[in-house]
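Hi W.,

Here's what went into the run:
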Amino acid sequence: MKSKIIEKHRSLLVLSNRQIQKNFCLMQLECPEETDSILPGQFLTVVLPSKESLIPRPFSILDAGKSKITIFYKILGKGTQLLSLIKKGEFLKVLFPLGNAFPNVPVNHLVLLSGGIGCVPIFFYMKRLAQSHKTDTCKVKVYLGASDADHFFFLDQMKRWKFDISLSTDNGSLGKKGTCLDALKEDMKQGKKVSAMLACGPYPMLKAVAHFGEDRRIPAYLAMEQVMGCGFGACMGCAVPVKDKKQAYKMVCMDGPVFESKEIQWEPG
Amino acid sequence: MKPDLSIHIGQLMMKNPVTTCSGTFGQGDIFKDFFDINQLGALTTKSVTLKPKNGNPPPRIAETPSGYLNAIGLANPGVEAFIKKYGTYFEKLSIPVIVSIAGTSPEEYAEVALRLTQRMPVQGIEINISCPNVRDEGLQFAFNPKAAASVVKAVRKKTALTLLIKLSPNTDQNVAIAKACISEGADAICAINTLQAMAIDVNTRKPKLANITGGLSGPAVKPVALRWVYELSRHIRVPIVGMGGIATAEDALEFIVAGATAVAVGTANFYNPCAVPEIIHGMKSWLSSRKIKSIGLLRNTLRTESIYNHK
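Here's what came out:
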């Protein structure tokens, strides 16, 4: 699934940009153009107001609609540090929507998996599902994983949508101890059916989800990341190894960021 | 007043002096969402090799102050797939197309040039001997006048198209290399390719690129590029295409003053996809506001006289 690249940078007004928790920031941008066509899994790039940090930074979209776009980011390096200092009322050069999106798969026994800040496109997918389906009866289950109890985000909102949600933490401080995939495996031992998985999270998690999906013959669609140079297919920087006779790599920005798990070459080939 | 921006390089007639740096503009097609590619003076493609090349493992990109560090590794589908995929597209363009080529031997460069000449609507060939991110292609020819000239000689035997040769900044031999290449039939010199460079994450002690080293580009390298263009322009008579960190019209005009006939925009395309039309427009305005009738009048006009009369 793909919506068309909007043809140039937009200068968008920053409506808000605040740390909702130490090192985790929520930024809302005003966008007078069409935002309802932006799809969960798609991303945008932001040009930083800096002559020194030139590479546009890619961010998965947390929410879009009603002339607003929201991103949620963790302050990790120089770029996100700079971004966190942007104030309400300033303008940012933004390119969007970029990349493909999570596919529309049948919702019956669909599983959504998120690890850490990988909750961003999962949250967006849940929102769009909530708009089009009866979430309490549609048999979608959401498995959220985090390092500890303090690193679940937007839980209240997710709960309001009435999804069946499972929480797990690495240290056991909230929900089940272990990963979100561990929690899913346990449920399956109890007889849970799974028709497809959509996942976003750190590389080791996505790899584990992919292997699990392949073993059980469950299709898995993964939102992946890679250091990007441009975001629209010009630099060939954001390579991800794939199992393809024609090419050893695909580009996260153009061919992804969502890949079917069986496309990806996880082990050195 | 509308200033005349047109220039020519060998047989290439360009309506303005701005082209793209190979490897920063795809084959042009990607940018059609941003502006009409026919606004370019000429299109320069990503380098093509005889056989397909996968490129290097990720991460391939890292940021440095005012710069990009890359080790893409000449990822390209190979000349056959390239001809099949882009032949019709190039035919529809109204601007000259320069195809950048790379190879592991003079014969390989020559074979790619031959196939392009015979089977594709291209007007120029840029011989890339200066990619720092591949083991076999490139740098082995970049540091030595005889080696560089051997590539030009082999290619010239197979094609009558305009030949440009792209030099590395990582040598002190460029004047001799340029002269040797010109004597074997090169019509123009492109300066410069990326600077060999690296970046390290001190927390993990890992290189930021999987390839360990890469090529540095962007505004950070502009002074180095400018100096090379100036140096070369004092010693050679063929046109120079200046490139390295050009992001604004002023940047481009500085290269013209230093002696370049044309300029190429590279890394700026990544963070400002409309950089090229903006630069062309800016050059026009700059010239017309100063009542300079043509871009040629600005070329090689560096004023080196001192305001002090110290002897």
